[in-house]
Amino acid sequence: MTALLLTALLAPFTASIALVVWGRVRPGTSPAAAGWVSTGAAAVFLAAVIGLAGSDAATHLTWLETGSFPLTIGVTVTGLTWFAALLVAGVSLLVAVYSVGYMAESEGHLRFFAELSFFTGSMLTLVLADSLLLLFAAWEAVGVASFLLIGFHFEQSDARRGAYKAFVMTRLGDLGFLLAWLLLLQETGSVRISEVLGAVEGGALSDPRLTLIALLLFAAAVGKSAQLPLTAWLPAAMAGPTPVSALIHSATMVAAGVFLVLRLFPLFERAPVALDVLLWTGLVTAFLAALVATIQVDFKRVLAWSTVSQLGEMVLALGLGAPLAAAYHLAAHATFKATLFLTAGAVDHGAGTRDLRRLGGLARHMPLTASFMIVAALALAGIPPFAGFWSEELILSAAVQNRPWVAVALLGLIFLAGFYIGRAVTAILEPWPGAPRPRAEEPKATMLTSTAVLAAGAAVSGGVLALWGARLLPFEEHAPGPVAWRVGAVLLGALGLLLGRTLVRRYGPIAPLRLVALPLENFVELLFVGAGRLVLLVAFAVGFIERLLDGGARALARGARKTAWLTSRAEDGFDRLALGGAAGAMAGAGLAELLEREAFGAGGDQAATSLFQAGGGLRLGQTGRLYLYTLGLFVWVGAAGLLSLLWWR
Amino acid sequence: MLSLTIFFPLAAGLVALALPAGRPGLVRRFALGASLVEFILAVVLLAGFDRNDSALQWRTTLDWIPSLGARYDVAVDGISLPLVVLTATLMVVVMVFVLPKHDRPRGHAFLFLLMETGLIGLFSSRDLLLFYVFFEVGLVPMYFIIGIWGHEHRRYAAIKFFLYTRAASLAMLLAFLALYLNTAPRTFSLDAMAQNPPLAGRAAALALLGLVIGFGVKLPLVPLHNWLPDAHVEAPTEGSVMLAGVQLKMGAYGLVAVMLRVLPESVREYDWLLLVVALITLVYGALAALAQSDLKRLVAYTSINHMGYVLLAVAVWGLATDADSRQLALNGAVIQMVSHGLLTAGLFFLVGMLQDRTHTREMDRFQGLLAQMPVYSWLLGLFAFGSLGLPGLSGFVAEFQVLGATVFNNVAAAAIALLGLIIITGLFIRMLVSVALGEPRSDLAPLTDLGARELISVIPLAALSLLIGVLPGLLVALVETATGPLAAMGL
Known about the structure:
The complex is a heterodimer of chains A (649) and B (491). Chain A has 649 residues and is mostly helical. Chain A has helices spanning 2-25, 31-51, 79-102, 109-128, 132-150, 157-188, 193-201, 209-224, 233-236, 242-251, 256-263, 265-269, 272-293, 299-319, 323-351, 367-380, 387-402, 404-429, 445-472, 483-507, 514-552, 554-570, 575-599, 605-614, 626-648; strands at residues 58-66, 69-76. Chain B has helices at 2-18, 24-47, 80-97, 105-124, 128-149, 154-181, 190-195, 201-218, 227-234, 237-262, 264-269, 271-290, 295-319, 323-358, 369-372, 374-387, 394-409, 411-436, 452-470, 473-488, and strands spanning 57-65, 70-76.
């Protein structure tokens, strides 16, 4: 079993390295071949993960023993890690297959597939890790992979900006994770997650440390899952190729924040203050992002903001103390959102744009893609029996039982989700007044097949989870909530869909909530840009101080020169100190000359000359002979040493 | 054996001077050969070092100046040996890098080899007077390297470097003398002073000030850092590499291996002050780096931040009351010295290679290098990610240990240190994005990717950083033979 586990982990990394080597040896490799290498690796590890079902394989080794701290790394198969690994493996495989078709005409496909395989390997390590250290390393590694893949079309300026934003903003959160695992190491003496959680459950930690650690961990989750205030990078990340958006920026990496909280939920459970922070962060983020999603005109940006909103719902569920609901929603969201992204890629390829205002009526040209899109949209809007319905229902039940006002807010969220996705999908698929209705055709077979499989997942995964999920995951089930709420949620989702659709059919893809949502979008952007500007401002102030430092020493230099002069005069009479006096004067005069020179802005050459002129014993050095310079310096050093000796006696 | 390692470069340097002036290629090849032999000697030292023994090894003691109680006493321990190997490694890649440069190669080779003697001698000295002499031997050549082979403002930078380091040496020497005069019988022996710290009270505080200034200028710590950007920027590439790669470690080594041993009580008394200075250094260095648009100046300023971790570790050593977190801090500090030596040297090489091609270092002048120089860009990325502490490379191993020890003792201090780290992240990513990504600029002539010689200069550094990052246990086990006793000192 351990061998199988390691096979799963190493397959993608091997593929990644093989592709890099391949690219060096044979630069002219065909895109499809490269793609199938990635796909093959993904298939191997999906098979390995499936083979691991029900096992409790684990392997550990000590990576570093520093002082008395044993830092272990290891991977383990538990219900939760297997569940997440299966999700990662499945989506990765489908996205790899899809990319074979999608990237066929793109330059640099070897780089793309090498980076994609590197990402899947890192992500798999992240979910399977049984060591906070390894989890952290993988956490950073997926950040790098995300950076590289967002910047894949590196010559485009929005790809550069997106990559920069994504890395810096997520790293801000990552550093919270760093502090958190270091603190846990101090408190529990281990980085093994099983041992850390054991210690936490045994009451090894108490407030305020516990809450602090929980909040630091949550900071990392905020960064990766694009919660407020670290949201702005996810919409910007849409500059990456669409398969990347599907895999990294909707299904797997951005959900890592939620996964982290799930993995360490026993710790969060004991920190009620932290749970409240989760609840509020999730709620505010989900609402804000849903509102902003309603005004987007780029289909990928609709999906990006929708992802932020859905992740917010998961965080909110965690804050309610309903980890099972969050885990279900994570899985459901991964399937339907990845499906939506893949259809977005198909639309982009087929019609040459993703701008809602330049689409319309595509259902006729791309019936298959259209049907996948509709299934995924229904799942997003929480319509039964599709995936989103089951998990939204669980979140709602938890809310009704714990905090009814949150349940009301959730209904609003479900309505908004229906509205924005209804608006976007209608604008793409159906004819509307003045729609450009571009010609388009269905994408390649590889792309269609993988979209179809994911769409099937979006259709049934919710139901499957509802039947068997609870047995797999180590979380308690909540009792189902009152029927009225559940029916209300479905109705509101449907109402949102219909409203969005009707609006577009009648007026086109307009943005009725623009007045509210646009300032919000700008606000999120400002959080990053503003903070960045502020830091830059301080940095430039420091740079200014740096330049002033030389000038600021001017007064000091004048004083030094006077003192040196006086000293040398006073000491002229003392034979015993003459040598030292000369040395002191030389140093002082040199210093003064230098700073003087600098202060008056002339070049430095004179200062160098004057120093050596001041020290008569060093004049020999002026001839430019290095060795004499060196010798002269040693003489001076000796003199200074002697002087100090005399002084100290 | 150790003495051979110390003085072999000096001898080789003298031979280099005697080589015919008309054959620069011969001189370069000779210097490379000498540095390779030296590297092998260093590796022999490493191979013969017993990692289960925390005593000093490869020791030689001879009478030097008996009337003063100064001895020629050299040995290596777990802190100094990695630095000796680092010095020898960097010297080899520097010599490879300068192979085709034919500007006065004899003096150049002599000065670099003389410097190597000084540096390796410094890391091996167990006698403070000897330490001081090697300190000077290590520093003085750099002054000429900047002044003779540097860029346009070289004289100014050299003189500034000279004055700062001179003042620092003086402060250090005074502190050494103060310590010396309070030993009985009079001795400069570091180990004797560590056994029985000579000073206490106010005198010790003054000596501490002397050492903090002496080592702090070289480290450098804010506000004693002003020489650094000029010296690094004006020095030739190979000079910056040695300056950042090894010379800054003279200060770092002094703080950890000398100051903690001879003045443990005062360090503990003034730990808060050291902590404040360390935090200022970390944040200020990062901010100042962020404000730069000259690539070389940017890298130079990040050194201030990176070396701030060493001072932070020293402060935590004073702050901590348990040997565990002290040792974590010291391990991190030593690894940071090695790691920074590798990563920053690599960055200086890369910036220098760009300057060789385009004669500019302005960040805004470059764009889209990934298209023209893919190997270069990926290497730049590797070193940048290493410098911002990405797991898997050496910087992370160093920084998480220092930060860990800090957070164990003072969460707020660690948070402030992380502020520096996030700024460093931002600036390296900004550099990478603006230099490597984007549409290639049309106003720069087509650039060629790195050649074999250039690759041989930087690949070993990247490989070593990766090795330490992936398998840090190799280095940590070595380092712990020395940091273990140091961590337990005075508890």
